[in-house]
Structures are given as structure tokens and as C-alpha cells.
Specification:
This protein has 249 residues and is α/β, with parallel strands linked by helices. The chain contains eight helices and twelve strands. Helix 4 packs across helix 5 and helix 4 crosses helix 8. The protein is elongated and about 60 Å long. The two termini are 21 Å apart.
């Protein structure tokens, strides 16, 4: 029996195990199991891998998509360009193992975008692992973007308090890559001037649990179009599964 899993902390919001269990029973895959593997610190990863000799690969979620990079032996080109990893394969040789990182979030995000997408500029809320994948994907689509951060990062990064009507006139695609509003903190929303939104705006929340976050509700109330992260979840999971099950070079 082959084991796949998801590392991150906490994992109460995560649907990956349910997604893969449903997929395995639908597709009559009986030799692979998928489990949530909560990890309080990324430094505990080698021990987890040694304790699960049947583990051949895993997905990575908040807060470890960037923190895992120093623990990897190799990365594919896309993951290197993005600077974040959400999929890792394990090659074992007795007690030793090698970890190779991939990024399927960008592919999942791209496959989830509605067509046609009539937006030329985007604001990316947050600057973590998922934000890096979204930025890479937007570049592929020729969509300009600026990050919005709580931290003074300089450059093109925008402060939440300086988002105004002028900026929102150009930047009509707003993507939440922060965990604000994710289960169980469903009463929270990013600090954003929702009253300045209108029908020309499109709000995308990477969160899929709950299906309608407060961020999306506030956007809808202001007349914006909205979508949640479920379609991206499916896209990145299917791309990860193809990596997990292909013959390793
Ligand atoms: P991460 O690496 O920890 O990054 C999250 C970023 O959000 C941080 O870098 C931070 O940016 C900002 N942030 C964190 N706490 C905040 C707070 N209290 N207030 C405002 N901003 C805050 O996490 P991640 O792995 O990128 O994941 C982020 C979210 O995306 C999670 O909810 C995750 O479940 C979701 N996600 C969904 C999918 C999908 O398939 N649908 C895929 C990937 C991720 P600043 O410090 O710059 O403000």
C-alpha cells in the first residue's frame, strides 16, 4: 500500500484527504491512501518521513510552502522560478531518502480562471507561498500585478491602507491569498476598502472552506463578481497526483 499525504499546520480547513478518498473510490484506486499529516514544525519532517516508510510523496500547505525549500534535495524548474513548493516526491534507498519539490498551485490557479478574463491588472493580497504561484501564473497570462502586504516591503508592494479608488480603477482583479476568513475564523476578512468595489471588479479567494468567505460576501454586496478556491484545489490536486504516480526519472 502506497501512502500520500498533506503536511501543514493546522489542517482543520483542509479538504485534500476527502478529495483524494472520493477520487480513489470513484476511480477504483485501491493501492493508494491519502492522509492528513499535521506537522507543528517543518524541522520535524525528516522524522515523519522515517516513521512512514510507505509514504512516497506529499502535498504542502500553509505555512510551509516556502519554509520547506531548504529541506529539499532538488526542485523542478517551475518550482524554482516560483520560489514555493506544494508537492514533494520521496525517493528512498534503505534508510536514506531524497526529496524533490514541484509547484502545482500555479497550474491549478491557471486552469481555474474563467474565460474570457477581461482584467489587465491584479492586486494579490498576501506575499506567501500561494501568492508566489499566483504571481507566476498571472505573468504567464500577461496580467500585471502588485502585491498587497501588511509589511513595509517597498518596491511595487502596496500597503492595505493606501488602496484607493484610483488604484482600483486600474486593478480590477483582486486575489486573496491570505488565510484571513479560512475555517474556523470565518468572521474575519482582509482589511480592504470593499465600499470602493463595483461591477467591474472580480474577487478571487483562494480559500475554499468556507465556500463563501466574508471577503467574497463583501465583494458580492458591492456588486463585484466572485469565485472561491475550490476549482484551484481540484486543479492543483489532479496535477500533483499525476506527479505522484508517474515513473520517477
Ligand atoms: P503563507 O505562505 O503562510 O502566506 C500567507 C500570506 O498571507 C502571508 O505571507 C502574509 O503576507 C499574509 N497573511 C498571513 N496572516 C495574515 C493576517 N493575519 N492578516 C493579513 N495578511 C496575512 O500561506 P499560503 O500557503 O500562501 O496559503 C495562503 C492561503 O491560500 C491559505 O488559506 C491556503 O489554504 C490558500 N490556498 C488555497 C489553494 C487552493 O488550491 N485553493 C492553494 C494554495 C493556497 P504579508 O505578511 O505580506 O501580509
Amino acid at each position: 500500500m502506497q501512502l500520500l499525504g498533506l503536511i501543514g499546520y493546522p489542517l482543520s480547513h483542509a479538504w485534500s484527504a476527502t478529495y483524494f478518498s472520493d477520487k480513489f473510490s470513484r476511480e477504483k484506486i485501491t493501492n493508494i491512501a491519502y492522509r492528513l499529516l499535521p506537522l507543528k514544525q517543518i524541522g520535524m519532517l525528516p522524522d515523519l518521513i522515517r516513521r512512514h516508510p510507505e509514504l512516497t510523496g506529499f502535498n504542502v500547505t500553509i505555512p510551509y510552502k516556502v519554509a520547506i525549500l531548504p529541506l529539499l534535495d532538488d526542485q523542478d524548474e517551475k518550482a524554482r522560478e516560483i520560489g514555493a513548493v506544494n508537492t514533494v516526491t520521496i525517493s528512498r534507498d534503505g534508510e536514506t531518502f531524497r526529496l524533490k519539490g514541484f509547484n502545482t498551485d500555479a497550474e491549478g490557479f491557471l486552469s481555474s480562471l474563467p474565460e474570457p478574463l477581461n482584467h489587465e491588472k491584479a492586486l494579490i493580497l498576501g506575499t506567501g507561498g500561494a501568492a508566489r504561484a499566483v504571481a507566476w501564473a498571472l505573468k504567464q497570462r500577461g496580467i500585471g500585478f502588485r502585491f498587497v502586504s501588511r509589511q513595509k516591503k517597498g518596491g511595487d508592494t502596496v500597503d492595505y491602507n493606501s488602496i484607493n479608488l484610483n488604484l482600483l480603477d486600474d486593478y480590477t482583479f483582486i486575489i486573496n491569498t491570505t488565510p484571513i476568513g479560512m475555517y474556523p475564523d470565518v468572521e474575519a476578512a482582509p482589511n480592504f476598502p470593499y465600499a470602493l468595489l463595483s461591477g467591474k471588479h472580480f474577487l478571487y479567494d483562494l480559500i475554499y472552506n468556507p465556500a463563501q468567505t466574508l471577503f467574497l460576501s463583501k465583494g458580492l454586496a458591492a456588486g463585484a463578481k466572485t469565485t472561491n478556491g475550490y476549482s484551484m484545489l481540484v486543479g492543483q490536486a489532479e496535477a500533483a497526483f499525476r506527479i505522484f504516480t508517474r515513473t520517477q526519472p
